[in-house]
UniProtKB/TrEMBL annotation:
An example Gene Ontology molecular-function term: 3-oxoacyl-[acyl-carrier-protein] synthase activity
The keyword Transferase appears for this protein: yes
GO BP of this protein: fatty acid biosynthetic process
Protein name listed in UniProt: 3-oxoacyl-ACP synthase
Ranges for domain Beta-ketoacyl synthase-like N-terminal: 45-219
Record SUPFAM superfamilies: Thiolase-like
The organism's taxonomic lineage, starting at the top: Bacteria, Pseudomonadati, Bacteroidota, Flavobacteriia, Flavobacteriales
Length: 356
C-alpha cells in the first residue's frame, strides 16, 4: 500500500524574518531595491566560529535552514538529503573565474572551485549530520525544488525511506545581478517598493536568495504541518491550456475547484508573465482565496520552496497573514492549498498540500 507523505518540520532563511518558526510573517521588512539579500539568523548559534568563517553564504544558509528543520522535527539524522538549486554556489563560481582572469590562469587556490559545485550544500549538510545515505541535487532551473520533492515523495510513498530532508537553496552574487540586469530580467527602476511590485506594470523582477528546508516523512509526527498530496512539473504550458491542466491535476487527486481553499501564486511583478496567474484568478479560482509571496521573498530559481513554506505554515496555523492576501475570499477552514509557479513562461509547477 502506498504511504502518505507528511511535512513534519520547516526551516526558512529568506528576505523576511522566517528563521524563527514561532513567528509567521508578523514583522514585515520593506525593501526599496531591485536585489535583496536574506535576513541572517545568528549563525553562531548553529555553527562553530571556524566553520561559519570558512563557509560561503549559500552553504551557510542551507546548513542552518536544514538544522532549524531537523531540530523542529526532533531528528538527529535522516535517510536521505535531496536538494534543489538553480545556480548552486554561484558566488564562489564568480570568484574562481574572476581570479582565473586576473591571475592569467596562474597561482590559483582551489578553495573557491571546490566550494562552487551545485551539490556542495547537500554534501555539507550530510557531513554535518553524518548521513551516509542517498544524497542528490537537482539543477532544473526554476523547477529544481519540485524535482527534489518528486524524488522524495516517490521514495517515501514506496517505503524506500522513512525520513528525508528536502530543500531549495540559491544565493545572489554581484556578477549575476549585473548580467540579469543587462538582459532586463531584473527590474530597471533604481528604487522600487518591494511590497508594491505586484502592481508595478513593468518588466523584470526583484532578484533575491534564500534557503528553505523541510523534513518529509511517511509517518505523521506531532510537529506535522501538512500532507504533501501531489507534485507536477510541465516544462512548457500555454495560457490557453492552463485551466485544462489545473482541472486535470485536480482530477487525478479526486478533487474539484471547490475543494481548493487557498491558491498560492508566484506573481513577481513582471508584466510580461504575470498574466498566467491572472488566467486562474479571473477564471477557475475567482471565488477562492488568492495569496502571493514574491513581494516578500524576491525572485530566485528555487523561490517556490518559500511558497511551499507559506502553504505549510498556513495549513498548520490555520491563518493567512494579511500581507500575502490578494483578495478577501477567506475560507471557513484551510484544508487544501494549491501552489502554482512559473518563471518567464516556463517550468510550470503545481503542488497540492492538505491538512494532516
Amino acid at each position: 500500500m502506498m504511504k502518505k507523505v507528511y511535512i513534519n518540520s520547516v526551516g526558512s532563511i529568506s528576505s523576511q524574518k522566517t528563521f524563527d518558526n514561532d513567528e509567521f510573517l508578523n514583522d514585515i521588512i520593506n525593501y526599496h531595491t531591485t536585489n535583496i539579500s536574506v535576513v541572517n539568523p545568528n549563525y553562531k548559534e548553529y555553527l562553530d566560529a571556524g566553520s561559519a568563517r570558512r563557509m560561503a553564504k549559500g552553504i551557510k544558509m542551507g546548513v542552518v535552514a536544514s538544522k532549524i528543520a531537523m531540530d523542529e522535527a526532533g531528528v538527529e539524522s535522516v535517510d536521505a538529503v535531496i536538494t534543489g538549486t538553480g545556480m548552486g554556489c554561484v558566488i564562489d563560481s564568480e570568484k574562481f573565474v574572476s581570479r582565473l582572469i586576473d591571475n592569467n590562469e596562474e597561482y590559483l587556490t582551489p578553495t573557491s572551485f571546490i566550494q562552487s559545485t551545485h551539490n556542495t550544500v547537500g554534501g555539507q549538510i550530510a557531513l554535518g549530520i553524518q548521513c551516509k545515505g542517498y544524497n542528490f541535487t537537482y539543477v532544473h532551473s526554476s523547477s529544481s525544488f519540485e524535482s527534489a520533492l518528486i524524488d522524495a515523495k516517490l521514495q517515501l510513498t514506496l517505503d524506500e525511506a522513512s525520513t528525508i530532508l528536502v530543500g531549495g537553496i540559491d544565493e545572489l552574487g554581484p556578477h549575476m545581478i549585473q548580467v540579469h540586469g543587462l538582459i532586463k530580467h531584473i527590474k530597471q527602476e533604481k528604487t522600487i517598493d518591494n511590497l508594491a511590485i505586484l502592481n508595478s506594470g513593468t518588466e523584470g523582477a526583484v532578484f533575491s536568495e534564500g534557503a528553505n528546508f523541510f523534513v518529509l516523512s511517511n509517518g505523521k509526527e506531532n510537529t506535522c504541518y501538512a500532507e504533501l498530496v501531489d507534485v507536477e512539473i510541465l516544462n512548457t504550458l500555454s495560457k490557453e491550456r492552463l485551466e485544462q491542466q489545473v482541472r486535470s491535476f485536480l482530477n487525478q487527486n479526486k478533487m474539484t475547484i471547490n475543494d481548493v481553499d487557498v491558491i498560492v501564486l508566484g506573481n513577481n511583478g513582471d508584466v510580461s508573465f504575470d498574466e498566467y496567474y491572472s488566467v486562474l484568478t479571473n477564471g477557475l479560482f475567482k471565488n477562492t482565496q488568492h495569496t502571493a509571496y514574491k513581494h516578500l521573498s524576491g525572485e530566485f530559481k528555487t523561490v517556490s520552496s518559500f511558497g511551499f513554506w507559506l502553504g505549510a505554515k498556513m495549513l498548520k496555523t490555520q491563518s493567512i497573514p494579511q500581507i500575502v492576501k490578494l483578495n478577501d475570499n477567506a475560507p471557513k477552514a484551510i484544508k487544501n492549498v494549491l501552489i502554482y509557479n512559473q518563471y518567464r513562461g516556463e517550468n510550470h509547477t503545481f503542488v497540492m498540500l492538505r491538512t494532516c
